[in-house]
Specification:
Blueprint (H helix, E strand, L loop, with lengths): L6 H21 L3 E4 L3 E2 L3 E11 L4 E3 L8 E16 L2 E14 L3 E3 L4 E5 L3 E4 L4 E4 L11 E4 L6 E3 L4 E10 L7 E3 L6 E6 L5 E6 L2 E15 L3 E5 L3 E4 L2 E4 L3 E6 L11 E9 L3 E2 L4 E12 L9 E3 L2 E15 L2 E14 L3 E7 L2 E4 L5 E4 L2 E7 L6 H4 L8 H5 L10 H4 L4 H11 L5 H20 L10 H12 L3 H11 L7 H13 L3 H14 L4 H10 L3 H5 L10 H24 L3 H28 L3 E4 L4 E3 L11 E3 L4 E8 L2 E5 L5 E5 L3 E3 L4
Parallel strand pairs: 2-10, 12-21, 23-31
Antiparallel strand pairs: 1-3, 3-6, 4-8, 5-6, 7-10, 8-9, 11-13, 13-17, 14-19, 15-17, 16-17, 18-21, 19-20, 22-24, 24-27, 25-28, 26-27, 28-31, 29-30, 32-35, 32-38, 33-34, 35-36, 36-37
Length: about 675
């Protein structure tokens, strides 16, 4: 006999069943986008056909519209009829009407539908809008200015302008670029600016490619309009919008017209001349910004006459503007003997944020004599480096940077891209290879930027202490900067000279040896080291702690020949002839030789050595407390360290003398 349920129990069960069925309906709701192909300017309909009964109260959340679309109406909730289990039901339909103002791929957030029972979400499909001329494209092609272009700049500031193509299925470059020069300034078309970036757009993997670039430099303040640029690409023609810029006047303090990050350095060809000699005084500005337009500081000199004046430069381009250096070379001659003074005036400029940067100027002395004295007599009077020279003395060890080793495979990467990207035409292969060469060169040229500008105030303070003869205070500043600028050889040159002036012989030798490890080919370092060794004979007896060959030069040659080897291998795969095999083995041998040479030079620069730090340091034959003193070594001698035992080092001199010495009697050279 069955059990009869009460009316209340039946209602509760029906409500539960209704909620479960109702929830399954809502979770299966989908939105339709009409029509099938969406064209710019035409109406777009978003429609949800729900299975929610018309009698149910519902509320729809606001549709968030991205830029490029505009809402015409909606949400509009109206009934529609549908047969469910053979019974015609009156249900809810929700629609929106949109219009696109520009083509693109638009992703809208989910929509919430609230009922008196629960809150549900409906995912909005990706809305893809095309221009009239690309109805058969899979994705709309968009060309526009790079979004990071500054809209407010200063007079004279060099601004990179980059046009990018979006939504490319493959990496393509334009067939033609047509532009109009703006007024009130100078614009130069350049190549290689911008990047190729893969982008995830909806479910698609597309590319954003820089297709054209210029550098614009305005010469007067006011509003400037960069005209629209026409790009012909993939058989379509696209136009960018006009780019509106605001050009602000330069601060009055800016006498050079410079905008960017710069350093100014000076160099003199000789520190001692006779009145019959010509000598060279060079002023160099290097950095990034409007370097072709910055004005050089004034040079003043008395007792000297100008024989010739030449300018030279090496300027490239980057995403921040011009990149490189300019130099003026003055050929001078003295009228009579005596100490002559060359004064480089102080100037200022601003960085890209408008912050004032000051250069305090520089004073260089040259000794004009009747008859030249020998070089060793000049060395004690070598001038200390000024702050600007120290800042420009930073060395980048290219071969120690893992990211630069990736350049070994740049030719392999580009060859594979050309091989597998079928859409690259033959005429565009050359452009692709050229861009690869430019990008690889920028990795090297970017290393001209020095480290130390952030410590300029401290270096200038040290200059002031040196000028007033307070060498101990200047040395304390340099000691504090050693860990912050470990590869700045100019810092160690000054530390060496100051320690020599203060009578600390071993520390003077120690610092010049570190400077030599950083810059083994620097002639000034070599002369100071020779001077501190007292004589040429004594210098030859010192341990060799640095190889005169710069390993970075070998590294660059290795990259070049290795990439040639990769290209030869590809050629060998296609053509199995005797010429290809001979070229392969020749280049392979060169690469192996360069690799071994780089390893050898690095090993020589990493040799463990030290400087004897006390006068008459005791040398013993065995590391025992009861061992008797055998010989003594003078302070400042540089020796190899071949081993250690407790508190003693096993050392060896360049001429073969070997023994044990207390660790307290030696300053260990740090590896560079």
């Amino acid at each position: 006999m069955g059990c009869r349920l009460s009316t209340t129990g039946i209602r509760k069960r029906l409500v539960v069943i209704f909620i479960l069925v109702f929830t399954s309906f809502l979770n299966s709701l989908e939105m339709d986008v009409l029509p099938d192909i969406l064209i710019t300017g035409r109406v777009i309909t978003l429609k949800i056909q729900t299975e929610i009964l018309d009698s149910t109260e519902i509320e729809v959340s606001e549709l968030v519209i991205p830029k490029g679309l505009e809402l015409i109406s909606g949400p509009v909730i109206r009934p529609y009829y549908s047969k469910i289990d053979g019974v015609t039901q009156r249900l809810h339909q929700i629609t929106w009407a949109l219009r696109s103002t520009s083509s693109g791929i638009y992703i809208l957030p989910e929509i919430e539908i609230k009922t008196d029972i629960a809150v549900f979400t409906v995912e909005v499909p990706t809305v893809t809008v095309f221009e009239n001329d690309e109805k058969f494209n899979k994705y709309p092609l968009i060309v526009s200015w790079n979004s990071n272009i500054k809209r407010e700049i200063f007079v004279g500031e060099s601004l990179p302008l980059i046009v990018e193509a979006y939504n490319l299925e493959e990496i393509n470059f334009p067939d033609r670029v047509i532009s109009t020069k703006p007024r009130r300034g100078e614009i130069i078309e350049v190549s290689g600016l911008g990047e190729i970036n893969p982008e995830k757009v909806g479910d698609a993997d597309l590319y954003r490619v820089a297709v054209a670039s210029w550098i614009y430099t305005p010469f007067e303040a006011g509003k400037v309009s960069i005209p629209s640029v026409r790009i012909d690409i993939n058989g379509l023609t696209r136009y960018t919008e006009e780019l509106e810029l605001t050009v602000k006047p330069l601060p009055e303090v800016n006498a050079t017209g410079g905008v960017g990050e710069f350093i100014i350095t000076t160099d003199i060809s000789d520190s001692q001349v006779t009145p019959e000699d010509f000598f060279h005084y060079r002023v160099k500005i290097s950095g990034q910004g409007n370097i072709p337009y910055i004005k050089f500081p004034e040079v003043e000199y008395s007792g000297l006459i100008l024989i010739d004046k030449k300018e030279s430069e090496s300027i490239g381009y980057s995403d921040e503007g011009f990149l490189g250096w300019r130099e003026i070379d003055y050929t001078l001659q003295a009228l009579d003997s005596g100490v002559k003074e060359i004064v480089l005036s102080g100037v200022s400029w601003i960085d890209n944020d408008g912050k004032d940067i000051f250069f305090n100027g520089n004073i260089t002395h040259i000794n004009v004599v009747s008859v030249k004295v020998v070089e060793e007599d000049i060395l004690p009077f070598l001038s200390l480096l000024r702050s600007q020279d120290i800042i420009s003395s930073y060395r980048f060890f290219f071969y120690k940077k893992p990211q630069l080793w990736g350049l070994l495979f740049i030719s392999l990467l580009i060859t594979l891209i050309i091989k597998f990207v079928k859409s690259i035409r033959k005429t565009r292969k050359n452009k692709t290879l050229l861009m690869a060469v430019v990008l690889s060169q920028l990795l090297f040229t970017s290393a001209i930027f020095v480290k130390g500008l952030e410590y300029q105030s401290e270096l200038v303070e040290a200059d002031n202490y040196i000028d007033s003869g307070e060498y101990t205070k200047a040395l304390a500043i340099y000691d504090g900067l050693t860990d912050k600028m470990p590869n700045n050889y100019g810092l160690f040159i000054n530390k060496s000279i100051l320690n020599d002036k203060l009578g600390y012989i071993s520390k003077a030798v120690y610092n010049i040896r570190i400077a030599e490890r950083i810059a083994p080919n620097n002639s000034v370092i070599g002369e100071i080291k020779k001077y501190l060794s007292k004589s040429e004979e004594s210098n030859l007896k010192q341990a060799k702690t640095a190889n005169p060959i710069n390993p970075d030069y070998i590294f660059i040659l290795l990259i070049i020949f290795f990439n040639i080897l990769v290209l030869v291998i590809f050629s060998l795969i296609k053509n199995h002839n005797i010429t290809s095999f001979s070229l392969f083995f020749t280049v392979l041998l060169i690469c192996l030789f360069l690799g071994v040479m780089l390893f050898f030079v690095h090993g020589k620069n990493s040799v463990k050595a030290g400087i004897i730090s006390e006068q008459n340091a005791s040398l013993i034959k065995v590391p025992n407390e009861n061992a008797m003193e055998w010989l003594t070594l003078d302070e400042g001698n540089c020796v190899y360290i071949n081993g250690e035992w407790e508190d003693k080092y096993l050392i060896k001199t360049e001429y073969g003398l070997q023994g044990w010495i207390s660790k307290n009697s030696i300053l260990v050279l740090e590896e560079r």
